[in-house]
Automatic annotation (TrEMBL):
InterPro entries recorded: DUF6525
Protein name: DUF6525 family protein
């Protein structure tokens, strides 16, 4: 519960543009990590760009895992290291391969 309160406090202290980006993000982002980056001197625009860049990279991988490579928005092939990076199993036993 204390970690959740810390997350919410960090989120509340972020600039409005970053709060909007995090609120509309397709994936969970750690508000304490984002606030830490700002405290270290990262530019707000750079953090937003990084979040959006990561989402553009991740969406085809998620579609690949959930729907298979034939889905129109899915990557045709995903390397095992990207699956591990996004916490998916690197094995090839997905439902659409059976």
């Amino acid at each position: 519960m204390r970690n959740l309160k810390k997350q919410l406090d960090c989120y509340d202290s972020l600039p409005p543009s970053l709060r909007k980006t995090l609120a509309n993000a397709a994936f969970d982002w750690d508000a304490t990590l984002v606030l830490g980056a700002l405290e270290l001197g990262a530019a707000i625009e750079g953090v937003i760009a990084r979040i959006l860049e990561d989402e553009q990279r991740r969406l085809p991988i998620d579609a690949y895992v959930m729907y298979g490579p034939d889905h129109p928005r899915a990557a045709r092939n995903v390397q095992a290291n990207w699956l591990r990076y996004y916490h998916y199993p690197a094995k090839t036993g997905y439902w659409w391969r059976r």
